[in-house]
Structures are given as C-alpha cells and as structure tokens.
Amino acid sequence: MDFDLPILAPSILAADFSQLGKDIHDCVDADINWIHCDIMDGHFVPNISYGPSIVKAAKKSAPDAFMDVHLMIENPDNYVDDYVQAGADLLTVHFEACPHLHRSIQNIKKYGIMAGVAVNPATSLYNIEPILEYVDLVLIMSVNPGFGGQSFIEASYQKVQELVDLRESGEHGFLIEIDGGVGLKNIDKVAEAGVDVLVAGSSVFSADDIPSRIKELVSKIS
Ligand code: DX5
Ligand code: ZN
Predict the structure, then answer these.
(1) Among 65, 142, 159, 171, whose CB has the most other CB atoms within 10 angstroms?
(2) In what order do the strands lie in the sheet with 175-179?
(3) Which member of 23, 26, 136, 179 is catalytic?
(4) Is 81 part of the annotated catalytic residue set?
C-alpha cells in the first residue's frame, strides 16, 4: 500500500466514548485516513481498554480509513482472527509479548493484512533486527504503554534515528511509527526525526474543535 507520508494517526483511546462515532467523523472530516486502535488486556499493560467490537464500530464510522490495531495484550496470536474480522488493516504485536515473534508475524500476514512489531522504551531495537525483513511497520513506544496523556520520552529520538539507520542498511521497506506523548509542542521534531506514522491521542481528542486541532497538527508535519 502507498501512503502519503508522514501520517497523523489519531488514537481513539483518548476519544469521548459517549460519542465515539462523532469523534471519529470529526477525524474523517479533517481528512484523517488512518485510525490507531489501542487494545489493552490489563495483563501485558496495567489497563483495560476495549476489544474487537469497538474496532468494528470504529471501522463502521470510518469505512475508508486504515485501521491500525496496536495489541498491548498477552498471547496476541489467539486474537488475530477476531481483529481481522473486525476490520484491522494492520496488527502490531509487542516484541515483549511474543516468544515466537517470527511465527506471530507470519500468522498475521497469512490474512493478507500488514504486520507490525512494537518495542517498549526499555527494549533495544537489536532484539528485533532478525524480524525487520518480515514486518511492514515498526512501532516505537515513546511512553510506557497503558495510558494516554503521558509525556514523550526524549530518548525516543535516538531510537528513531537508530531505526532509520537499520532500515537503510538492511534495505528494508517497513514504516516507522511512534506512539505516545506526541502533540503540538513536539510533532514537528518527531516528524523531522524520520517517523512515518505519528500517533496522537490526547492532543487530538482533548481539543474542543477536533478538526481544527488535526489540521494544526498536520500543518506541522507537512
Ligand atoms: C499508550 C497508547 C498510545 C496512547 C497515545 O499505551 O499506545 O497510543 O494512546 O496517547 P497520547 O497521544 O495521549 O500519549
Ligand atoms: Zn498505541
């Protein structure tokens, strides 16, 4: 798939769930075509968010949007089919949750969707070097996973640079995504570091006027 990079990817974790459809329509009205869905099980991360039914509802609200599903869960292999049926276009599993990561990535790709791997702030990229040729996206966590509204971990810039270098030296084609603490104050610097997909939750959905905030964020990365 070709994408017009860099991409702003609103994380609906921060949306108002009493009006999720409206919040997603606001994103679509602001020309968003990539939605980030944070799945949390209360085990891999100390929080529970939502499951396939919300992803399905989000897809219904934005049928043309690319559904990026970030699995912050244990045993993600057991849920791939559920999220594919819900409309996922990309499933990203955590390196830290997959003892058989190569098999997990192959298990996603056999559905014909994109497969991503995520690394937590304390995880070195050299742990995922053997899988880089097989993935479509690498997600760098710039906060400790589990909650929106946290501060961006500044060491993430160095990690992005390392990943850019690994992609270039290995002649890989994966996208680089960053997730957590991205907002008006740093989104330009994050994009300049070489990130292709920038996840933003609270900086999007905390705004009174979501479409205007999205346009403001996009203007800083275009
Ligand atoms: C955290 C999630 C992030 C988070 C981003 O575990 O993976 O996607 O929702 O939210 P903000 O942009 O508020 O940090
Ligand atoms: Zn996420």
Answers:
(1) 142
(2) 7-10, 197-200, 175-179, 137-141, 114-119, 90-94, 66-72, 34-40
(3) 179
(4) no
CATH architecture of 7-219: Alpha-Beta Barrel (3.20)
Q: What distance in angstroms lies between residue 204's CA and the mean position of ligand 1's atoms?
A: 11
116-163 residue pLDDT tens:
999 999 999 999 999 999 999 999 999 999 999 999 999 999 999 999
Set 26, 38, 68, 136: catalytic member: 38
- The domain locations on the chain are 7-219
Distance from C-alpha of 215 to C-alpha of 213, rounded to nearest angstrom: 5
| pTM reported for the whole predicted model | 0.98
Q: CA-CA distance, 197 to 158, in Å (whole number)? A: 17
Residue with the smallest CA separation from ligand 1 atom 3 is: 180
